[in-house]
Write a structure and sequence with these properties.
Length: 301
């Protein structure tokens, strides 16, 4: 087994054979810095047979799921773990229909809702910004709908792409839905995604000219966004892969209201593409589910 996570399905089944085993695993992730009782401040606890932690000082019970993504879930934790494993095991992810079939859910909406909860957990709060040389560009995303050429595609959503340049390779990436390509929108978005002082490479769109005033080194790869050879190869490669992923894995059925969640999943997977173990992705996802606050139903429906 890997360091705290299963390497394959056989090890997964061994580690998480019961709900109690899943609860204990969550508790060890949540209180890896040490258990602290919310009532008396005690720092030691018994782990009961059902996976609940009991303070040895005052006897207060704490559930590893309280205040997390899995807070008050009506489903067994083993079912959640199994679903998370299915999602991480597939290199390109799963559609809601695929998860419904894999888990045997009677409702498509249940699978869809679970996937969106997991996507919320894929974004690490306070995650590091991109650094070094970073290519920045925009692309329109909207399944198979037709639209105008260039920056005015009708019915599509505009997505800002930021990709670290690491020699001939692509480093980390970030994707963000933006309402328009106005200067203020572009500069604010770059500031959110990229560390100040980084070398930002863009095309000649005038909206980027203010980057130096925001603390970035700015290089224009080409003066016009439509003409010339590909001088933003990393950003364009990400745009191509993203659209292929949406069409292939999700058959292009990605609504505007939830597009950012899909982008977050793509980023989560792409930035861990070199991982040799699906189990490590599972570990990262479960760890973030523990760190993620409960998500109100109205936020994902």
């Amino acid at each position: 087994m890997g360091e705290g996570y299963p390497e394959n399905r056989r090890e997964f089944d061994m580690m998480f054979a019961t709900n109690e085993a899943c609860m204990t695993y969550l508790g060890n992730l949540r209180w890896k810095g040490g258990f602290v009782c919310r009532k008396c401040g005690g720092t030691t606890a018994w782990i009961l047979t059902r996976g609940v932690w009991e303070c040895t000082k005052c006897g207060v019970h704490r559930s590893p799921t309280e205040g997390t993504l899995l807070h008050r879930t009506r489903f067994p934790l083993k079912t959640w773990f199994d679903a998370a494993w299915h999602v991480c095991e597939q290199k390109n992810g799963m559609s809601a229909l695929g998860l419904q079939r894999a888990m045997g859910f009677g409702s498509y909406h249940t699978a869809w809702e679970w996937l969106h909860r997991m996507r919320h957990a894929m974004v690490l709060p306070g995650r590091g910004k991109l650094t070094g040389e970073v290519e920045v560009d925009e692309t329109f995303v909207g399944g198979v709908k037709s639209g105008k050429r260039g920056r005015g595609a009708v019915g599509k959503s505009l997505v800002l792409i930021a990709a670290e340049v690491r020699g001939s390779a692509i480093g980390r990436i970030r994707l963000q839905v933006i309402p328009d390509s106005k200067a203020e929108t572009l500069l604010d978005s770059v500031e959110v995604l990229v560390e100040r002082g980084s070398d930002v490479v863009t095309d000649g769109l005038s909206g980027y000219t203010g980057l130096p005033t925001r603390g970035f080194n700015h290089t224009v790869s080409r003066q016009t966004p439509e003409l010339g050879r590909n001088l933003l190869p990393k950003a364009h490669r990400i745009a191509s892969l993203l659209k292929r992923w949406i069409l292939g894995t999700h058959q292009g059925s990605v609504g505007k209201d939830h597009l950012q969640c899909y982008l977050d999943e793509f980023v989560f997977r792409f930035n861990r593409r070199s991982s040799q173990s699906r189990g490590l992705l599972f570990y990262r996802l479960i760890t973030r589910a523990v760190d993620c606050r409960p998500i109100p139903k109205e936020c994902i429906t």
